[in-house]
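Page 42, continued from yesterday. The earlier attempt failed because a stray header line got pasted into the input along with the sequence. Redoing it now with the clean sequence only.
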Amino acid sequence: MDLLIRNATLRGRPGRWMLAADDGVLIAVAAEDRDTVTEAVTVIDAEGNLVTEPFVDAHLHLDKVHTLDLAGPRALQAYTQGSMGAAMAAIEDAAAVKRDQTTAAVVERARRALTESVRHGVRRVQAFADVDPDAGLTGVEALLALREEVRDRVEVRVVAFPQDGLLRRPGTEELIVEAVRLGADVVGGIPWIEYTDADAAEHVRRMVELARRTGKRVAMLVDDAGDPGLRTTETLASALLATGVRGSAQHARAMALYPEPYLRRLLGLCRAAGLGFVSDPHTGPLHLPVFALADAGLAVALGQDDIEDAYYPFGRHNLLEVAFLAAHLLDARTDAALDRLYDLVTVQAARVLGRPAPRLVPGAPADLVVLEGRTVRQALTLHAPPRHVVVAGREIASTRTRTEFSPPRR
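This time it went through. Structure tokens are written below.
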């Protein structure tokens, strides 16, 4: 065998377990038996720690990582105001970074972030790249190159994203079409930023039609401001239902302000359209009602969103850290609630991307992480890098930390 993991704790399964992999696939997941002698090229002793599926990030602006110092403080201040009323102004201020952007600079910054992806066991990333007359295709070209560079460690799905609008920035639509032709995996959108409701609806229509014509999914930032009058989530769900295109809604922060009767109707529409959602509650003072959506049967995920850019000053691409922050912001502190949060950065996040939910069962891909901690609560408390990260049955990263204490003074 290629790999054997012994003395593992698995979620929802009592006792200790061993997992065996060969040729990139799990071939055995069985109760630990110390009398069984099994040889493997690599043997990992989990030491009783939790072994789970790897992490999935359904929303990361990978082309913007590590640009905060270039952007300056004004956009961040506007985006994090209590009502998020200035969200549009923040996006306009942040756009200045892109005017001198080069493909090489984006590659260098994004590669740093993807190195952290490997360290922290992030197996899949839905990565947004701005496309507009200022950025051109530099962000898309950079992420497409990195997609190939890291494909044996991290699966990157590139979203061609009209961050500054479609109709309000002439020439952007043609660039999005070219980005898809070059190999972008997903058609993006941000309809709420258009100047009129009619233009927002046209933004959705054009991007969904492009996705239908090219056989792509869509990923749109909708209603990302503190305005209960925003309705682009409904517009997107209606367009998907009419065309059969599938995709996800990102942020949808205004849903936190919707009156309950309208929210209930909207959830039914989104369920019929198969629309998934991604929330990033740590990057803004408003966030969608995550558990209400999950209880309604919708696929919901948590995402990193930003790493040290004009919208968020922190970030290590550590989805355990994202879930740890969400536990406080979503008031989810019981073991059952923490377990649900963990699903939102693993199996449910995969559903949002239209992928089968990963499971640790024979026949599944041998992708997994050995965490620091024996329970989900302990792992979230520490939110440390996994001890071991395994992709296709091969250990690609390992992390151990040690503190040395000086002897006490007499």
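Notes: The two ends are 53 Å apart (CA to CA).
Reminder to self: strip header lines before submitting.
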